[in-house]
Amino acid sequence: MTTRRISAAQARRVAIAAGGLDDALPDARGRMGQRTLERTIASLGLLQLDSVNVFERSHYLPLLARIGPYDRTALDRMLHHDHGLGLGTYTEFLAHEAAVIPVADWPLWRWKREQPMRASDERWAAAHDTLIADVLAEFEERGPMRPSDMEHPAHERLPGGWWNKSDAYWATTVLFRRGALITVGRSRFERRYAAARAVLPPEPQAGIDRADAQRELVRRAAHAFGIATLDDLADYYRLPVAAARDAVSDLVEAGELEPVGVEGWGRPAYLRVGTRMPRRVRSTALLSPFDPLVWFRPRAERMFGFAYRISIYTPAPQREHGYYVLPVLVDEELVGRIDLKSDRRSGVLRVQHATIEIGHADRAAALAARLSPALAEAAAWQGLDRVEVAGPGTWAKEVAQAVRQS
Prior knowledge:
Blueprint (H helix, E strand, L loop, with lengths): L3 E3 L1 H11 L15 H11 L2 E2 L12 H7 L4 H8 L10 E6 L1 E6 L7 H5 L4 H9 L1 H14 L24 H12 L2 E7 L2 E6 H4 L2 H5 L3 H16 L1 E2 L1 H7 L4 H13 L3 E6 L6 E4 L11 E3 L10 H8 L20 E6 L2 E11 L4 E9 L7 H18 L4 E4 L6 H10 L1
Parallel strand pairs: 1-8, 13-14
Antiparallel strand pairs: 2-4, 3-4, 5-6, 7-9, 8-9, 10-11, 11-12, 12-13
Helix pairs in contact: 7-8, 11-12, 11-13, 12-13, 15-16
């Protein structure tokens, strides 16, 4: 049987549409309520978390890109961030990296909770098994709380910032990884844990067989990506590649995935059967560094020719494009990258750096005109009064002019 061939441009359009970014245009969207948020999270499968909020924390941004300026406090209520004390509809687990997932998906992760941690972490846990048991007992006795609220003697306040945590704190991370503690929300972005067996209904506690769970996770990754390689599908939920390969084989045999060849990819790809194949896509979106469209950097480079680093972990003298660097999607291309900062005290969204991709430099002004409404939308969503382009970059002049004219 001949493998179907798909052009690189068609693959991009499929991925953008499958990822919910088709027709994601500023000023063309209505008011979005809780049901829209729930549907969008369900389509993505998860929201990756990150604490950096120089512009906005990462889990808010994929929703902004897809549905426009929604009420962030509505999402906070859904996730129990500074709202409520008990287990709601959503929790967190290491489903990619630390991420928001539905509580209903908890059974899909039994295999990972039972999987050994890194050897150094297993050695630490073995050496502190009594402490770990004591910490769990405190959560069982006292109910949901933050690690900072623990009263265990080993929870001493230590100088030295984020990384200098007490042994009792690290015990909570082991219990979280093993599933004995479950996240029931956050307070000031610190996790609030509860003993899992005290708050989970019986069915999620049981779990699902490893192979069945991993097959379902690959199925969901294929739905979110539309078209993908084996490595792409494995990375979406950080599955072992061998396990993802077995799942892909099962899904191909079941007629859910179609093997295809994509122009320029140089490796087999898989198209989810029934995926929409648009002739064109329209979109203007600011993407989180942890948006599924770009979070697997080899895929972003293969699909868009976009070599990407967020740069927050890069020493300042070595940063090429700024600090908190967001890819800019216009229609079916990643056309540039901008470094944004929400200056809340001054009421300004600052564009600190703006770079046009080399292949799009001849359209810099036109693309800046497409970007400007998205910047204005993001500023208003943040409660900021205006956008200012203050930094350097190969696109800064055109973006500044477009902002002034808008």
